[in-house]
Amino acid sequence: MELRHLRYFVAVAEERNFTRAAERLHIAQPPLSRQMQQLEETLGVVLIEKGSRPLRLTEAGQFFLAHAKPLLEQVRDLKSMTQRVGKLERTLTAGFVASTLYGLLPDIIRRYRERHPEVEVTLHEMTTVEQLKALKEGRIDVGFGRLKSEDPSIRRILLRDERMVVALSPGHRLSEKEEGVKLMELIHEPLLVYPKSPRPSFADQVLAAFSTAHLTPDHVTEVRELQIAMGLVAAGQGISIVPESVQGMHQRNVLYRPIQDKHAFSPILFSVRHMDRSPELQNMLAAVYSVYDDLGIAYVEEAL
Ligand code: BEZ
After folding, report:
1. pLDDT of residue 150
2. Whether the CB of 102 sits within 6 Å of ligand 1
């Protein structure tokens, strides 16, 4: 069985019609039918119900389709990832979630540049979900994100867990509580969460923190990005929950109080292509840990 058979079968199954599938594949219909016959002979099972119009798959056909599609996606990823690894000599492109920019990201990148001045480093702000896509398409080499989403082609390392804090406007009734607040005290406040899309996002991590505590906030407004949420908090439009590094943003008219609930943490993850063992990535990881060591930050270094 060749990859070609999988590609042809997926086109036939999705189009549910040989003529349209042949057009999509830019081949004539008779060779497509022959290839499908060959595939059924090789497997020794019927994949497409004979005489059905539009085409229907047998149970074996549905099983084959469900497994052939992810296999083809992996082949596509393998191609773009290998091309990227081959080109990786003296460049390193990193995707990062906005909150890290106000925390340790600048120190880490500076440390990396000091140690490896010959490497051209490029940075792109993007959500964790966007980072996974960009890694697979070879547009970035490493992602610094926050969501623990599963993907067999991505290798993730948990760097550390960061406490969540609530962002309030000065004069807010909770601003007196320097020691921190409980999620329970926030449920009647207008809550601004970000980013609105793509999901899942940090917004879902915040909402999950409430649901883990069996709480549901009364009014939730989704906004496009962190900077908008902080601007609206400064304007007194609501409160927002952010990782503590966002305090480095120094937004005027916003103050922060720690959230005391034990589970109110957001992870920072280092994600790379599963097969990418480039020394540049090892060096980047070393730069992260060296900044943590200098600042006395506890880290976990856990492969997920
Ligand atoms: C951190 O804050 O721990 C961090 C930020 C950016 C990249 C890596 C780690």
Report:
1. 84
2. no
Residue 131 lies in a domain: yes
Domain identity same for 47 and 115? no
Residue 139: give its domain's CATH number: 3.40.190.10
Nearest Cα to 216, choosing from 261, 241, 186?
186
> Which residue's C-alpha comes closest to atom 6 of ligand 1?
105
| Cα of 51 from ligand 1 centre, angstroms | 59
What pLDDT sits at residue 89? 65
Ligand 1 centre to CA of 141 (Å) is: 16
> Separation of 166 CA from ligand 1 center, angstroms?
20
pLDDT in tens, 202-246: 999 999 999 999 999 999 999 999 999 999 999 999 999 999 999
- Residue 245: CB within 6 Å of ligand 1? yes
Write down the pTM of the prediction.
0.80
For residue 54, give the CATH number of its domain.
Answer: 1.10.10.10
